[in-house]
Amino acid sequence: MYKTFFIETYGCQMNFADSEIVHSILVNVGYVPTMEIRKADFVFINTCSIRDHAEQRVLNRLQEVQSLKKKRPHLIIGILGCMAERLQKQLIEKNKNVDLVVGPDAYRRLPEMLNSLSTQDKAIDTLLSTEETYSDIEPIRLSSNRVSAFIAIMRGCENYCAYCVVPYTRGRERSREARTIIHEAQVLFDQGYREVTLLGQNVNSYRCDTVDFADLLALTAQINPLLRVRFATSHPKDLSDKLLETMAQYPNICRSIHLPIQSGSDTILQKMNRKYTLAWYKDRIAAIRRYLPDCSLSTDIIVGFCDETEQDYKDTLSLMQEVGYASAFMFKYSERPDTYAAKHYADNIPEDVKSQRLAHVIDFQQQSSLLSNQRDIGQTFEVLVEGVSKRSTTQYIGRNSQNKVVIFSHTDEKPGDYIYVRITDCSAVTLFGQRIE
Ligand code: SAH
Ligand code: SF4
Ligand code: F3S
Predict the structure, then answer these.
(1) What is the pLDDT of residues 372-415, one digit of tens each?
(2) Closest-lying ligand to the alpha carbon of 316?
(3) Could you count the other beta carbons within 10 Å of the beta carbon of residue 414?
(4) What is the pTM for the complete model shown?
(5) Is the CB of residue 401 less than 8 Å from the CB of residue 255?
(6) What is the spatial distance between Cα 353 and Cα 359, in angstroms, rounded to a whole number?
């Protein structure tokens, strides 16, 4: 009898891309994916450690998954990803029903580790690598549409932002060979995909032999003008003019940049070890506007970092006001064990103050997103059609180059088509429009 597996994924896009690689590794040795957790012989949870809340969610879910073992004693439960790396054997010690713990650089060993469970009780591998990029493994695509796919171009991070766990869970930064990335993008295009997102924790520092990130973007964009190219995430310290010039040269490199600021105060930025100042960040925003006047901007914000004063927090709001982000991910600072901040600073902003500040920045961003969308009313955008909207089968959904979701009435368009849509209305998160011929 063949064995089936089920993977549930938490965390960032890199983790989702990793789950696609794990699917491929397991399918290659004859295991069969299933969508039904109750029927699976192996259940894997690909986990995230970025904030305490992310870990708690996984641990709660793990309780539920462990209870499945009552009915299915042969079920194997595996923890993959960043929590596996951070907590290692503690996961097994604290959860006696967990059988496998596999860190992000050890997925090739999964089949061997699963086999080893016939002779031993538990298996664990959390060795980090300086070279592993899984570049030869063709991921099994799990995205909900057949239009847009992720390509991991690098792994790890060594920026050591003071609050961040990623350098410890993902290891050293390493770039994947450009040839294999271009090949993967070409294969996707040939299969009908029309959008690829190049992924890394800091894509601007991509370098493999003589190819830097701007070169890689150009090579990907050259595959076909009908292939849209996106990327995430950009670290402000490495956002070069060369990159912006390259984007400007290729209309199919999308006009949207995610540029996490984290805080609008220089004191806090320095404490966070972000390695840029506010002046530098604003200069980069000005450069983006110069090269790409129609580019949309999004960001990440942390409120309540160690010693953040009322003034520091107000500076973050002023920065948000000044830039006018189209969207933002906003978080309360969550202390992560063993990071620089955990070791050297006190997590001294009270929880209720963090919550108030967060509620306020979310509110502020909501208005900013609405304003940004209102400015698009009356404009016409080229939209890549993704498929039917969740709300109604007569409404279709797509995105413009600025990465905004556009909803329009369906006529004869198919996923993967490019159409022109004139925007007639909006909410803070969506544009609504009509197709024009
Ligand atoms: N590599 C990306 C970010 C990856 S993590 C970058 O540098 O931009 C995604 C976001 O989570 C970060 O940008 C940050 O805003 C947030 N984050 C990371 N660690 C956090 C922590 N300890 N507490 C709260 N938010 C955190
Ligand atoms: Fe974390 Fe900073 Fe690396 Fe981003 S750049 S993953 S925030 S250490
Ligand atoms: Fe989470 Fe790991 Fe990504 S900590 S955000 S899954 S790199």
Answers:
(1) 999 999 999 999 999 999 888 899 999 999 999 999 999 999 99
(2) 1
(3) 11
(4) 0.97
(5) yes
(6) 10
